[in-house]
Amino acid sequence: SSCKGYFYACLSLSSTTGYGKSFSQLSKDEKTIIRDKVIKEIRKNRYNPVTDVLVLTDAQVYGLQKVRDYYRDVFTNGDGWGLQKGLIKESDMPKTNRAWVADSDQIQQIADFFFWTAWLSSTPRIGDNITYTNNWPYYEDAGNTMTFSAMWWSGASVTILILFVAIILYFFYRYQLSMQEAYKEGQFPVIDLRKQPLTPSQVKSGKYFAIVAVLFFVQTMFGALLAHYYVEPDSFFGIKWIHDLLPFNIAKGYHLQLAIFWIATSWLGMGIFIAPLVGGHEPKKQGLLVDILFWALVVLVGGSMIGQWLGVNGYLGNSWFLLGHQGWEYIELGRIWQIILVVGMLIWLFIVFRGIKSGLKRESDKGGLIHLLFYSAIAVPFFYIFAFFMKPDTNFTMADFWRWWIIHLWVEGIFEVFAVVVIGFLLVQLRLVTKKSTVRALYFQFTILLGSGVIGIGHHYYYNGSAEIWIALGAVFSALEVIPLTLLILEAYEQYKMMRDGGVNFPYKSPFWFLISTAIWNLVGAGVLGFLINLPAVSYFEHGQFLTPAHGHGAMMGVYGMFGIAVLLYSLRNIVKPEAWNDKWLKFACWMLNIGLAGMIAVTLLPIGILQMKEAFEKGYWASRSPEFLQQDIVQNLNLIRAVPDTIFLIGVIVIMGFSVKALFHLRKPTHGEGEALPVVDLTKEE
Known about the structure:
Blueprint: H1 2-19, H2 28-42, E1 47-48, E2 53-54, H3 58-77, H4 106-122, H5 148-174, H6 200-204, H7 206-229, H8 240-245, H9 248-279, H10 286-312, H11 320-323, E3 325-328, E4 331-333, H12 335-362, H13 369-382, H14 396-429, H15 435-456, H16 469-480, H17 482-502, H18 509-534, H19 536-542, H20 547-575, H21 583-619, H22 621-624, H23 627-630, H24 633-641, H25 643-663
Antiparallel strand pairs: 1-2, 3-4
Helix pairs in contact: 1-2, 1-3, 1-4, 3-4, 5-16, 5-19, 7-9, 7-25, 9-10, 9-12, 9-20, 10-12, 12-13, 13-14, 14-15, 14-20, 15-16, 17-18, 18-20, 18-21, 20-21, 21-24, 21-25
């Protein structure tokens, strides 16, 4: 809206100056003359990099003032669409010596920032004919149209994808780079859970999974609240105080942050559980460390959520960045909470290392399965460090650059790597696949997953002020990211076959249902829906619209969420008494979660996303993000219908939560104490 307001203010002043009339009173020819004049005027770069001075024309100065007036009204009186009155108050910050905020009028500062975004998105780079944002957002009236680079590399990326699919499939089948079954037909390994060893730290991991399920439920409820706000933006079924207490931005921050918390915690709990199985014994004081980490996580989750609420509501003053809300999606945590998060992950890494240390010593191959498990565990805390590369005074483009290292590389990359290693380890540990074929398959997956994913991060840099080269790199390599995700669908069949071969007595049916779900959503949510919006030509019109959460839900919940539940159930299956287990309810929950997730994407997010792209294509990007678009009957009805799949999904969440919490009261007693050797499969021995 700032770009539109800036441009129309320039039109207004130029019309009055040139013809003595408002722009709406001009004839068609006069409007064309004024529009061409203004486009030429605003698309001339008057910034001097030597003196660091930007010179504005009279029309641009008028545009700046109109942008200031608009946002002063919005932040003072609200926008009628859920934005609270008096949102920005001078009293929220000290009068002088403010942390990261200038001492002058805060509303004018934020308005000037919005004007700056309008200027750089409509002004060509020095010595170039495209803007700093590669002509985004689409706004033909102001001269912003899709570049040749975006069009060409969209087509080229599809062509290269087809070529590499053929090449990678050739190597995949030529060298048998899939996991090979370790059992012969009719000789499926007998797994007797009553004989499974159990240590004190493994039993203590049970409380992690109960917390995971509770956080999953809370996160889902915040998601339901957000969905409702699209229909009723300033209240919840007429209850105003709920919106006043939890406005959209706070609810969204909680929804995103809790997703990372519960998924990551499930993986931490699983790492704690499998560590003794790898090392072959329980290290001394391992249980104490597990308890310390658990309470550290409780402090982190509770403290950060309180801090975010206080920060957004202006109660933290100069401590907003340290204890409150940083203002970036997926990196909402204040800096102190980020430090606690990293310390917690390092404690977890230490716990895992102590547990698997004996296995690492026995495994002479530094690239063997146990070492791969340890390397992937190291990557989890290490790659989060990039979140510390951004501060409030970091240039927006550079800050966004590092932010996507967290979202894309840490969440979508390292989480994926850790997931495939853990799946491989579990299948080998259960004697379902051979270790040799698993290690070979993992290296193949790493090569294509990280080979495409690291540079594929560039699809997030198309229009954020980065260089045009990222359009080419992001388009090509993000297209290639689809290949490893597609190959994982083959794993879904293999896992289904193993579950079928295991028969009625196979104890891990529930985890396998969710592993199969993970593989399917890897293809659909991460692969298909991700590829749809990663093409530069599509992203140009779609960026930040409903198709993005369609991909986000399919990938975050469909892949990492389903996998988090899978490892939760695998771990609980071993520490919960067999008589307290109920596969029927868990199968029901699996169906509810999958149907609900698919429903919310297919019924609401995809249709609205397509309508939104059409709106942007026909009227300009600003129109697709306007309240008027969201208030259309068809959009409102699609959002209302979402209540059906959301309710189905919620039923699945409640079943998982109820089962996980109830499991705490039916835990097995440890069979082995600290230092005692465990009768487990030695993964260091050759097959």
